[in-house]
């Protein structure tokens, strides 16, 4: 009994310690953001709970930085990236899971090989291609969005994930539907897609998170501030407010609110251990 | 089954995805190779074939060597910690005690927050008069330039990468731990093993493939590190945090030196290829039923 209690205390102390490490950088940002100008943010020993908590930094940075615009841009880019990934992955996964055709193995190897090509090693030619296709913001807002979305419209992991989902659906369903006169496209749309909706949800959520957090590509292609996504906009805070850590901290905290809400709602998809981090860019 | 679709049908389903794979993967891949053999120095619009000159220049460049060295140093700092700490955390989490889902959510939180915000938060923690230096001063140490001292900068960046990765790999370990047969632990218990011995003799051998998976995955992502460095140090001080991707980024988008950027990209491709092949042949094939 005492041994069990001791073990439980030990487990909880370790996990509380890990949770505090996990939360600390954000708590420290919030603490700094809540300190007004009359409070020294460089004070030793550091004070976590502000003496005179104020929201003036939040309102100040909100007035100067168009966060709603950044949210909107990030959302548009992430939403369309998700939609295209879901459509293209599930289309391509169908023949790979179910049909026999010439060149299947070669096509499969080609898809597999893209997993081994890191984006960072081919980003320069991708940039040159995007320029040639006029998919940059200097040609207009729509072109700018397309330049952010299209390079990430297909991901081999998505194709494999959907293929795996289709493989687990019994073939008899499709055969029965075919005998009833259903076309191949309708079998895909009305049987395979609905039956693999849990996998589609996983793919959607992880693609969304990946796109929402993407920093390297938008910071390369974007020149027009009205198209800035959140990570690019937040990184700019450092330049705009140079040493004003109250504002930088406030802006950083504002920027993570939407994704935290999303995470809290969708948490079971992330931490259940069933999807073991299905997709990672 | 084979008879109820026409011959062209499979290709129609594959077509949309392949248009994008060709434009944004295969074309750029071959173009990287081609550019790496061309010389753009006279005229950027009419490059000439240069043989292996770009590679020769690359391997003569001191800066490139430093980037390569930093990349592997970084890998050496990050990978062992990310193979070990998430495993320990997952072992603690994989028990029937109260508050498990709350712990999981809190420890996973850094994974979903943008790396830019995490890097900014750490920049503030690393500040000259920041929290870390306060802790150092408690122990009577002198203030450390976490991001401005060449001896510390790479380690400071590595800590951020580790911090952001713990939750991610913890979940991967957790799903492996859940599939370890319970009988094995009971057998160990009847043999009189304590908790530590139990995990050493049962858990570790059982999840060895997952440990190896985490090692290759975290190696690949360490080789690709960029955002942390861009936000916190821009490769400085004195190139001490310049990694290979940062080197490519600088050559490509700041110096417009396409030849150097592409030949360095090919080197990066080759290095990552080794890890990817190991990863796919031994681990991912089971995960995605390849």
The helix count of chain B comes to: 13
Task: Please name the CATH architecture of the largest domain in chain A.
Answer: Orthogonal Bundle
Main beta sheet of chain A: strand number and arrangement? none
Assembly level: heterodimer
Gross CATH architecture of chain B:
Orthogonal Bundle
| Mean pLDDT, all residues of chain B | 91
Number of strands of chain B: 2
Shape of chain B: globular
How far apart the termini of chain B lie comes to 21 Å
3D architecture notes:
- The complex is a heterodimer of chains A (281) and B (290).
- By secondary structure, chain A is mostly helical.
- Chain A folds into two domains: 21-53, no CATH class; 62-271, Orthogonal Bundle (MetI-like fold), CATH 1.10.3720.
- Chain A has helices at residues 2-34, 56-64, 67-98, 104-115, 119-132, 141-149, 156-167, 171-179, 184-195, 197-213, 216-221, 230-240, 245-271.
- In chain A, helix 2 crosses helix 13.
- The longest helix of chain A is centred in the N-terminal third of the chain and has 33 residues, at 2-34.
- Chain A starts with a helix and ends in a 10-residue tail after the last helix.
- Chain B has 290 residues and is mostly helical.
- Chain B has one domain (36-287): Orthogonal Bundle (MetI-like fold), CATH 1.10.3720.
- Chain B is 72% helix and 1% strand.
- Chain B is built from 13 helices and two strands; from the N terminus they run αββαααααααααααα.
- Chain B has helices at 9-35, 53-60, 62-93, 100-112, 115-125, 131-138, 153-178, 182-190, 195-206, 208-223, 227-232, 244-254, 258-287; strands at 38-39, 48-49.
- Chain B has a two-stranded antiparallel sheet with strand order 1-2.
- The longest helix of chain B is centred in the N-terminal third of the chain and has 32 residues, at 62-93.
- Chain B starts with 8 loop residues before the first helix and ends with a helix.
- The mean pLDDT of chain B is 91.
- Chains A and B meet through helix 1, helix 3, helix 4, helix 5 and helix 7 of A and helix 1, helix 3, helix 4, helix 5 and helix 6 of B.
């Amino acid at each position: 009994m005492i041994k069990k209690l001791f073990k439980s205390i030990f487990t909880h102390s370790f996990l509380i310690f890990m949770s505090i490490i996990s939360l600390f950088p954000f708590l420290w940002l919030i603490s700094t953001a809540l300190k007004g100008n009359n409070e020294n943010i460089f004070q030793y020993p550091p004070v976590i709970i502000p003496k005179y908590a104020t929201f003036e930094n939040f309102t100040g940075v909100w007035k100067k930085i168009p966060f709603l615009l950044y949210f909107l841009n990030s959302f548009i880019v992430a939403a369309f990236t998700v939609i295209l990934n879901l459509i293209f992955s599930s289309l391509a996964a169908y023949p790979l899971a179910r049909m026999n055709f010439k060149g299947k193995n070669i096509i499969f190897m080609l898809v597999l090989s893209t997993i081994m090509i890191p984006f960072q090693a081919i980003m320069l030619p991708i940039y040159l291609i995007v320029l040639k296709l006029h998919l940059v913001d200097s040609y207009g807002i729509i072109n700018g969005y397309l330049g952010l979305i299209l390079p990430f419209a297909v991901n081999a992991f998505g194709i494999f994930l959907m293929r795996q989902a289709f493989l687990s659906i019994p073939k008899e369903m499709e055969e029965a539907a075919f005998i009833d006169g259903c076309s191949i496209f309708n079998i895909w749309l009305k049987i395979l897609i609905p039956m693999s909706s849990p996998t589609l949800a996983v793919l959607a959520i992880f693609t969304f998170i990946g796109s929402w957090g993407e920093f390297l590509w938008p910071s390369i292609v974007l020149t027009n501030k009205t198209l800035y996504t959140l990570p690019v906009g937040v990184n700019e805070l450092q330049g705009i407010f140079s040493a004003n850590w109250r504002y930088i901290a406030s802006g950083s905290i504002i920027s993570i609110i939407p994704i935290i809400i999303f995470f809290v709602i969708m948490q079971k998809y992330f931490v259940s251990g069933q999807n073991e981090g299905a997709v990672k860019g | 089954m084979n008879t109820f679709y026409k011959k062209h049908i499979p290709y129609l389903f594959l077509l949309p995805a392949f248009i994008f794979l060709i434009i944004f993967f295969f074309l750029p891949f071959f173009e990287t190779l081609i550019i790496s053999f061309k010389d753009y120095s006279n005229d950027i619009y009419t490059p000439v074939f240069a043989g292996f000159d770009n590679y020769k220049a690359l391997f003569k460049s001191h800066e490139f060597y430093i980037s390569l060295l930093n990349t592997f140093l970084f890998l050496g700092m990050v990978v062992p910690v990310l193979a070990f700490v998430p495993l320990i955390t997952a072992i603690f989490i994989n028990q029937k005690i109260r508050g498990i889902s709350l712990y999981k959510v809190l420890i996973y939180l850094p994974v979903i927050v943008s790396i830019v915000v995490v890097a900014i938060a750490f920049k503030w923690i690393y500040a000259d008069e920041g929290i870390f230096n306060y802790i150092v001063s408690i122990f009577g140490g002198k203030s450390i330039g976490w991001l401005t001292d060449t001896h510390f900068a790479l380690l400071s960046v590595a800590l951020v990468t580790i911090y952001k990765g713990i939750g991610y790999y913890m979940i991967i370990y957790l799903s492996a731990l859940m599939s370890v047969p319970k009988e094995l632990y009971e057998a160990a218990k009847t043999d009189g093993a304590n908790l530590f011995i139990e995990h050493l003799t049962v858990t570790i051998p059982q999840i060895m493939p997952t440990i190896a998976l985490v090692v290759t995955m975290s190696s690949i992502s360490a080789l690709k590190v960029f955002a942390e460095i861009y936000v916190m140090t821009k490769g400085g001080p004195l190139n001490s945090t310049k990694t290979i991707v940062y080197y490519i980024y600088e050559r490509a988008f700041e110096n417009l030196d396409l030849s150097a950027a592409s030949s360095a990209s090919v080197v990066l491709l080759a290095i990552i290829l080794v890890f990817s092949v190991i990863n796919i042949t031994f681990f991912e094939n089971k995960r995605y039923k390849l």
